Amino acid sequence: MRPWAAAILYAVLGAITFVVCFPLLWAISTSLKPKDEIFRWPPTLWPENITFEAYRELLFGGSVASAPGAGVAPSAYFLTWFGNSIIVSVGSTIISITVATLAAYSLTRFRFWGQRAVPYIAILGYMVPSVIFVFPMFLTMVSLDLTDTLFSLILGYVCITLPFCLWLMWAFFRGVPIEIEEAALVDGASRLQVFRQIVLPVALPGIIAASIFSLIVSWNDYLFGRVFMNTMENLPLTVGVMHFFDGTHVDWALMMASSVLMTLPMAILFGFMQRHLVAGFGAGAVKG
Amino acid sequence: MTDVVVQGLSKSFGSNHVLKALDLRVPSRQFVTLLGPSGCGKTTLLRMIAGLEKATAGEIRFGDRRVDTLPPGERNIAMVFQSYALYPTMDVARNIGYGLEVRGTPKAEKQDKVGAVAKVLEILHLLTRKPKQLSGGQRQRVALGRAMVRRPDIFLMDEPLSNLDAKLRATMRGELRRFHLDLGTTTIYVTHDQLEAMTMSDLVVVMNEGVVQQIGTPEEVYGKPANLFVAGFIGTPPMNLIPARWEDGALSVAGTALPITLPAGAPADVILGVRPQDVTIVPAGTLGSIPGKVWIVELIGSERLIEVELAPKLRVTAEVRASHRAAIDDAVAIRPDPDNLHVFDPATGMAISG
């Protein structure tokens, strides 16, 4: 490539990267500013005086357990919310992945009526916006007496992540040659051994890709958490941090520090799993 | 000592009848090839013997043991797949030893056996590699190693050489034959390549449309084809099949009488089969020859194929020395070798023994 073409390309890519990254950088910067600097005009791009006050308040500002009752600052709930988010995203991911993997395997390996239609109907279901079924689902949760429980959120997230996980695993298993399973059967392995020792290791990149998808969707969800939950102790992070708005003022430092801490687990996960994610979306390239 | 007996075996996929009441006996310790065009049912037969397909009807026995109700793992067979089907996430050593592993063989014993097989196959240095890091020929050896390590009663091979390049295929043909002679394990080998069938087998089973056409040694299926299908399928270039008329004790082809006598009871219309190697080109007018015109001449290395048109749409190929010169449209004559003629009944397709 000619130098000037490369320069233009890098300039364009740099600009796009900046636009994409700016909100995150701004959040980090704001979370580190003292309160008076947050509202200063003109704003400072990087804090003049760095303070970790917001982080200290969120992480070590005392827990609900030590000071129960009304009048507890919302920031005291932060770790509880964080825990809730982990429970519901990990829980729903485990269910989604287990069901999707087994279902996709049977859809590619056994013959039964409607076998071809299932994955397509599932992906069609995924295309329906969740706003449409969140209220019917809420009413169902009410009749099951599950509202305001983490379990209701887990079920809700399974409903939105399962179809796509199923589709992804289905596409993945279709690329796994059936001969390797037959070879294992001839070698004397049982069906279960074949699945555990031959199929699952081959499907691992697909499972990782589907897990990351499911984790991100349930970790970032706001809608279900907002509709299904109401007590402070049970909120997921996304809904909980909205309590840093209290009608009269917004605690921007807490808000931004929460955002940064919220982004962290997913960012770390992504860093570790990136390689597998690419392999997962390149499903079918496993012929050995 | 395990012979394989297949009795009345049928397989249908819906209305598609792949195997039709097939009978076959594979003698113990022999190398038997199932040969036929694609779709003839040979792979299905092999997969049924392996237990990977269920029979619609009929039974399969290994020696005295009826096996068609057993799962593949309990038949004590080993199979080499066309795609090799190596386990992609396991290294070569575990690939070879997996059959022992699932049978609970002690670790030390397993290592010894895997090592011994790897040594024979000259892949000792590859034991820690993954299948992805191997060449086609090396994968082939690992697949063979996986089959050999368990000392199975029967080897089943489904076109194991078809993914190799021509040169390696020729080498592996010889090696497979050597392994069979050394191990003496009953082997059933599926191929559509008649060269493999002819060079490696003790017995060739020629199949077409789910039916066994002929079972015989390579010499028999080549020298005494039982019917028109076998005659046309075995041999390169294929046998000339020429309509002829048998009347009043004389056989005539394209209006020319040939000094050949057919056995009593031969029908009036017959099909004469003669291999291109058994046809000589002679000057027009030679006694006992059929006149014609050179249609096309093809050089195939040390030989030359000359196609002679005897009558419209009736052409006969002769394989002659490359030094034999012929030009298109030359008037020549062909003389089939009377000792190497095959006669078939066009109504049944069966050979008329002479």
Structure report:
The complex is a heterodimer of chains A (288) and B (354). Chain A has 288 residues and is mainly α. Chain A folds into two domains: 3-51, no CATH class; 76-281, MetI-like fold (Orthogonal Bundle), CATH 1.10.3720.10. Chain A is 70% helix and 0% strand. Chain A has helices at residues 3-31, 35-38, 53-60, 78-109, 117-127, 130-143, 150-174, 178-186, 191-220, 223-228, 237-240, 252-281. In chain A, helix 7 (150-174) crosses helix 9. The longest helix of chain A is centred in the N-terminal third of the chain and has 32 residues, at 78-109. Chain A is globular and about 75 Å long. The relative contact order of chain A is 0.13. Chain B is α+β, with helices and mostly antiparallel strands and 354 residues long. Chain B has two domains: 4-233, P-loop containing nucleotide triphosphate hydrolases (Rossmann fold); 240-344, Nucleic acid-binding proteins (OB fold (Dihydrolipoamide Acetyltransferase, E2P), Beta Barrel). In chain B, 24% of the residues lie in helices and 35% in strands. Chain B has eight helices and 20 strands. In chain B, strands 6-7-8-3-9-10 form a six-stranded mixed β-sheet, with helices on both faces. Chain B has a five-stranded antiparallel β-sheet with strand order 13-12-11-14-20. In chain B, helix 2 runs parallel beside helix 4. In chain B, 41% of the residues are buried. The mean pLDDT of chain B is 92. The chains are: A mainly alpha (288), B alpha+beta (354). Chain A binds chain B through residues 177, 179-180, 182-190, 193, 197-198, 201-202, 204, 286-288, and chain B through 50-52, 71-74, 77-79, 81-83, 85-90, 98-99, 102-103, 130-132, 146, 150. Chain B: Residues 4-234 form the ABC transporter domain. Chain B: Pfam families: ABC_tran (PF00005), TOBE_2 (PF08402). Chain B: This is ABC transporter ATP-binding protein. Chain B: GO terms for molecular function: ATP binding. Chain B: Keywords: ATP-binding, Cell membrane, Membrane, Nucleotide-binding, Translocase, Transport.
